[in-house]
Amino acid sequence: MKVPKSVANLIEAFESLPGIGPKTAARLTYYLLHAPDQLAEKLSTAAKDLKLKTKICSICQNITETDPCEICDDPARDKSVICVVEDPLDVWAIERSGSFSGLYHVLHGVIAPLDNIGPEDLKINELLKRLKDGEVNELILATNPSMEGEATAMYIQRLVKPLGVETSRIARGIPIGAEIEYADEVTLRRALEGRKDF
Predict the structure, then answer these.
(1) Which own/partner pairs from 20-27 qualify as long-range (CB within 8 Å, at least 24 positions apart)?
(2) What CATH number did the domain enclosing 23 receive?
(3) Are β-strands 166-169 and 63-64 bridged in parallel, bridged antiparallel, or unpaired?
(4) Is 183 in contact with 191 (CB distance < 8 Å)?
(5) Are strands 63-64 and 55-56 parallel, antiparallel or unpaired?
(6) One domain for residues 128 and 80
(7) Which tens digit of pLDDT belongs to each residue from 70-110?
(8) Residues 15 and 77 placed together within one structural domain of the fold
(9) In this structure, are residues 161 and 167 in contact, taking their beta carbons and an 8 Å threshold?
(10) DSSP H helical segments within the chain, as ranges?
(11) Could you tell me the CATH number of the domain that includes residue 122?
């Protein structure tokens, strides 16, 4: 069966998004085909606004509509602590938890030699500039616990050490609701190493 070109084009556009395969792309397309016109317009406007109105914060490198972003501009935030994350979604996740009141720095990736991504491709120099004024006392390295995330955290820690800024790493271990018997050896080892008084 031949699919109309406009339908095929939207399926192809959805497929180019990460995490969306051919079946999901087709399902989304056919849903929009039968959805109210307002939904398609809302989606179109939101995508256009995303590209036109967002920019990178000149301080923390997060995605924002204002420069500086709302977090960097908030006088209630603790400016002595910076949490270093891989991408803007990590900021969103930590903010949702409501457990951090400091500032952020978004690297926009990790050191990944196999993908030809080196330190110069990340926002590390911008981080070092922020640390030179002496206002920051602690840097929390919150990169993912992957090989690349660990390598990036270690690289940053080596660069920051001469500046006298205390560095810490987010804790790793068994997630809430998980069962110990299903945890892998590395997770169990890190959970035991990072144990706290009870």
Answers:
(1) none
(2) 1.10.8.420
(3) unpaired
(4) yes
(5) antiparallel
(6) yes
(7) 999 999 999 999 999 999 999 999 999 999 999 999 999 99
(8) no
(9) yes
(10) 5-15, 22-34, 37-53, 88-97, 124-131, 147-160, 185-193
(11) 3.40.1360.10
